[in-house]
Amino acid sequence: MPDLVFALETHPGLKRPKNEDAVGHALAPWGGVFVVADGMGGHRTGEVAARLAVETILEHLKGVEPSPRVLLQALERANERIHQEAQRPENRGMGTTATCLVLDLPYALIAHVGDSRAYLLRKGELTLLTEDHSWVAERVRQGLLSPEEAKTHRWRNVITNALGSFPQARVDLLGLKLEPGDVFLLCTDGLSGVLEDRTLLEVLKHFPPEEAARRLVALANEWGGPDNVSVVVVRVPEELPRASRPYALPLEAAKGAPVRLKLGQEPEELPTQVMEPKGRRIRVGWRDILLIGLWVLVVAYILLGYFRP
């Protein structure tokens, strides 16, 4: 399998005394795992929460075949560990964002909690794959704030979802089929909250991952460096393996479009080729037959009573 080209960078920024971000990765025969996390809860507890998230996710995915369910379990396990630590009086308020990219070539899976982000650069266009779990982002989605207002709102740093904040994790899952040369950017809000998307696009388009990661961190610091900044840049090989997977993805994801995944609602098998059907087929199961039969009996009983003298 061709090697992935990637780079990871993290920096405390210019205004924070300590770096509460964490990044990590692990390569595997099927591809690799990449994680960014942005801790919260104080200069000590935030650092611990982010580190626990990255370590736990990588440990859970080590040596196993990836799937949406396994990825979800990795974040759930991280949530349990951080939530347990947060019950100690000295760790009150501990939590962390986490955005994890699993490259299971030729597919990609993404799990996301908080306001760190995952972007996809494909054919010269940059797409934000994740939705921020923050107070201002939710108001923007509701149409109550404009994106410009959200950038300067006094509550722009209020997170509505983080690992460790609740006993149960609330995780967004996405999946898509890769295309040769795709580039992924994972970052904390120390980058996305400072640089415009068009700046991210220009850097990712014109520089390889290692140089792009360095330049993005440097630009965030040039623009004030108000927060810790962490960046992961991964470029997919030009030659991708042709392989099917035991897990299921929705048809749109199997064709290449990023799609949110809902466990238990995917098709029974992963489509590797998309063919236009010549005619629509209606599949009728035994439950459908039973319901139709009951409906016929009810209607017959009603009609019999109506026509009986």
UniProtKB/TrEMBL annotation:
The record places domain PPM-type phosphatase at 5-236
User: Domain of life here?
Assistant: Bacteria
Q: Which residues form a coiled coil?
A: none
User: What Pfam family is a match, any one?
Assistant: PP2C_2
Bilayer-crossing regions: 289-307
Q: Please give the InterPro entries that the UniProt record associates with this protein.
A: PP2C (IPR015655), PPM-type-like_dom_sf (IPR036457), PPM-type_phosphatase-like_dom (IPR001932)
Q: Quick check: keyword Manganese in the entry?
A: no
Q: Does the keyword Transmembrane helix apply?
A: yes
Enumerate the UniProt keywords alphabetically.
Answer: Membrane, Transmembrane, Transmembrane helix
- UniProt xrefs under SMART domains: PP2C_SIG, PP2Cc
PANTHER family according to UniProt: PROTEIN PHOSPHATASE
**Name listed for the protein in its UniProt record:** Serine/threonine-protein phosphatase
Q: What is the lineage of its organism?
A: Bacteria, Thermotogati, Deinococcota, Deinococci, Thermales
